[in-house]
UniProtKB/TrEMBL annotation:
Belongs to the serpin family. Residues 1-262 form the Serpin domain. The lineage of its organism: Eukaryota, Viridiplantae, Streptophyta, Embryophyta, Tracheophyta. GO terms for cellular component: extracellular space. It comes from Lolium multiflorum. It comes from the Eukaryota. GO terms for molecular function: serine-type endopeptidase inhibitor activity. Gene3D superfamilies: 6.20.40.10, Alpha-1-antitrypsin, domain 1 (2.30.39.10), Antithrombin, subunit I, domain 2 (3.30.497.10). This is Serpin domain-containing protein. PANTHER family: SERINE PROTEASE INHIBITOR, SERPIN, SERPIN DOMAIN-CONTAINING PROTEIN.
Length: 264
């Protein structure tokens, strides 16, 4: 369990379900630096059927490379909604050279995160596609190709902006039409821009994902599932099956950094 930074705790679902819920929410808050402080709402634990809960949390906070945004330049401007209305929100502004790609009907902005000087790299060198075979004094010798240097890992936030105010749904359909569409349309070089504006925002999403998973994964959710090895015999006589999978995600973007947190 140490390899995956996993931990286990004993809680009393049967006699103290709300106390157990509080312990689980406290764990989620600690793992996400208090950005997600509640995963389970009141009454979400059924003491008659709940035996095991498995939690997973992912936390990411990245500072922008080159500090592209200055708080003093942040101003309120209209943000257009899908229903045609608009609301004034704070927009971060930058006049620095940026990674921007312009395509038919939409633009793409790539904001890179600052990486550590000796951060993550692809440690497996990539060989050139072909070596060569030499014949020397009746001995066949294979000469290995030179190895390319390890490529540093680079994380970025990519923003796709449709030109039309009501063009978001159409752009989403286009992106989903081909698996390689996203990578094929990302910018690869910085260009001079007069100004870019990015809204500051904080979004949260909460949903049960069981309905989606059941499209291709039914067994864990039915009585035929055998997950009894996860618990000791509690003499309840109930099969151990997956009842629900809850996903909550939060993302926050401001002048210094962006952060995303997920809990399941």
């Amino acid at each position: 369990m140490g390899t995956f930074k996993a931990e286990a705790m004993v809680v009393d679902f049967l006699h103290a379900p709300e106390e157990a819920r509080g312990q689980i929410n406290t764990w989620a808050a600690q793992k996400t630096k208090n950005l997600i402080n509640s995963v389970l709402p009141p009454g979400s634990i059924d003491p008659a059927t709940t035996r095991v809960m498995v939690g997973n949390a992912v936390y990411f906070k990245g500072a922008w490379e080159g500090k592209p945004f200055d708080r003093r330049l942040t101003v309120h401007k209209p943000f257009h909604r899908l229903d045609g209305s608009h609301v004034d929100v704070p927009f971060m502004q930058s006049r620095m050279r940026q990674f921007v790609a312009i395509h038919d009907g939409f633009k793409v902005l790539k904001l890179r995160y600052r990486m550590a000087a000796h951060g993550h790299t692809n440690k497996t060198p990539t060989p050139a596609p072909f070596g060569r075979v030499e014949l020397e004094q009746r001995t066949i010798r294979y000469v290995a190709p030179p190895q390319r240097a390890a490529v540093p890992t680079q994380f970025s936030m990519c923003i796709f902006l449709p030109e039309a105010h009501n063009g978001l749904r159409g752009l989403l359909d286009t992106i989903a039409s081909r698996p390689g569409f996203l990578h094929e349309h990302l910018p690869h070089q910085r260009i001079d821009v007069h100004e870019i504006r990015v809204p500051k925002f904080k979004l949260s999403f909460y949903s049960s994902v069981v309905a989606v998973l059941k499209l291709g994964l039914r067994l864990p959710f039915c009585g035929k599932a055998d997950l009894s090895d996860m618990v000791e015999d509690d003499s309840c006589g109930l099969p151990i099956v997956v009842d629900d999978i809850i996903h909550k995600a939060v993302i926050e973007v401001n002048e210094e950094a962006s952060g995303s947190k997920e809990a399941n």
